[in-house]
Structure prediction request, 170 residues.
Amino acid sequence: MTLKAGDKFPEGVKFLYIAYTPEVANIKACGIPIPLDFDKEFHDKTVVIVSIPGAFTPTCTANHIPPFVEQFEILKSKGVDAVIVLSANDPFVQSAFGKVNGVTDESFIFATDPAAEFSKSVGLSVDLPAAFGTRTARYAIIVSKGVVKYIEKDASGVAGSGVDAVLAAL
Prediction:
């Protein structure tokens, strides 16, 4: 299945994440991964999913995620209830990536798509060399009340999945 604008967001999607709390704010502190049930948490909300092939990689760290962090208040002012940064990395790496980016808002979530299963199921995975395996591709999705309003996959760069494109689509 290839997901496109106008489609109903798939049901039963679950990611994993470590919720931010002051007790696990230190980069060396580890929380416990918990499920993020998309249907339960976001069925009546507007959510931006921004996917990256890997935390701490050059483009993701320098160009892709920091602008979302910097413009989070603008995203919220345009009706976004949550931003989910998604990667096939494990939830501990994703949690550390959020901490390094200075994110402390519970509605800015660094989650994992285990084995890129969700991304594969909607045609948004990428096969990288064996050392990396199958990953989430670089993409952005805006889901509003269970319907995909915007979806863009980038083959290179962040033109379609970056914060400017997402803001323009809101």
Q: What stands out?
A: The first strand starts at residue 14 and ends at 17. The mean pLDDT is 93. The chain has one domain: 14-169.
